Amino acid sequence: MNTNSPPRFSTAHSIPPGVLRAFEIGPPATWEAVGRPGFSGARVYRVTGQHPPWCLKALPVADVDLCRQKGLQRLLRHLATGGLNFVASPRSTAGGEPWIIEHIWLWQCEPWLPGDADLSARTERQRLQAAGRALAIWHERARHFQPEPSEAVWFRSHPAEPSPAARERAALLRQSLATDFHAFRPLALDLLPSKLHPAVEIVLGEMLRCGAEVARELERWPARPLPIQPCLRDLWREHVLFDGDEVSGIIDPQAARCDSPAVDLARLLGSLCGSRREAWTTALDAYREVRPLAPVEEALLPVLDRSGCLLAGLHWIKRLLYRGEMVDSQVAAGCDRLWHFAERLAAAPDGTGPLPLWR
Question: What share of the chain is helix, strand, coil (3-state, %, to 5)?
Fold first, then answer.
């Protein structure tokens, strides 16, 4: 396994025997849970000893809308049966149920996808192209998904609707700017480790300097409808697996919902390419070869990238400040995320940002 790969597992709790029986997983199967807990609270296990290996996921049932979860599983099956071998199709229980609920957890099973994420400082050109193509293929197939009426609110496609992400981010920015930043800054600098202070200063400084401008840009988008369809919405570089230079897995689709495909592009390329314009161009060109971007989608990309850096940077300051029950490995991962967004915001003023609307 590539040592640069992120852990794809959560906490090492036991799998209830009833879960293994429900999915007909028996001896000599063994399971392992490795690495840091996920931020969602989900647990992920790799089950081996049988062919193929399986992935068991446990989601806090209190956080799951069962109607939405059923629609998500149908979407994933639609993608996997459409030739997308980098999408895991959920497996039903022996009784034909989509999952099993044990105590406070919803358990579901799917094939284990091979490969490793690319966490290198500069992702190679071939992998950028492969990631762009794979995401475009995902979007093209997802566009043809037919949700049940009860699932349409989450997974419909429509040729011209406002972007939910643009509306939600505008509201979040306005809400954040309405708080007392002058009181928040000294609190963050007092309670967070000194090694994070430069990142805090960058994020809060950029929020005060251009947050209102970005909110105004986002608020113009409800008047500019664009294609809406099922999207992943939380696609980070850790969620794209490679086998060699080819994409072997797009994982962790739990946040999927209908929105503009530009949301996925901005999120993934900001994570994978950072502020390297040539890397963005490489990945976008590969994406366009499969799924051309409408002019309105191209225009939305910069403001999504810009707002995403501001809001995510602020989110991680607050998450680390009010860390609650975060374990040490989650805190370390949160610090990495904070620095990622601070560095992206710091890169923008000298023209190295990926898209022109940074200034």
Answer: 50, 15, 35
